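Encode chain A's predicted structure.
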Amino acid sequence: MERAHRTVQVLPGIHRWSVTDDRVGGVNSEAYAVVAEDGAVTLIDPLPIDERALRKLGRVEAIVLTAGNHQRSAWHFRKLFSAPVWAPEDAYGLEDTPDATYGAGANLPGGLVAYHTPGPALSMYALWLERPRSVIFLSDLLTHLDNGTPRFVENQYQDAPERTRMSIRRILDHLPIEVLCFAHGRPILRDGATALRRALDEDTDAPAPSEPL
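Encoded structure for chain A:
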């Protein structure tokens, strides 16, 4: 996998970097850094990047994974910055032992709040940040690889594609979403709730309802 050399500000206090990821068909993968008012930096699903670009943001004090398959460069940065890694309860496929685990509703470093959003993986979490404008980090729930409507990943690559749709509906029911940040694709910076509804409305691959989950 290539390495990024700089971050781009998404919003004040939120920065993003991208790499072309050969593991997922050469599409862009995204990682984020949340910078608190006191200068503490929390990395979300960190991808390879020149450490100098992260040091420019402030003190890296925590690393949060949204799922086991998003460990990416977490262990490298844990060693480099002596920053603890937080991982979901029951995350699978981890290459090392996290320093802390979390579950639904947990308050995490950087002001992040964990929402259990199973579907792409059974132990997957979206992360909500109230400031500066109700941001949600969607992990693999949707992709945004062009400028159109966000899309669901093909059902064959998800643990439970029906639950993915349910997770999006729960987000819409419970959170006042404005900004969407994706693990793959460019963020949507305004009217994110409308984009989520459009993704559901235009979804042509939704599986037929099965037994209650």
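The two ends are 37 Å apart (CA to CA).
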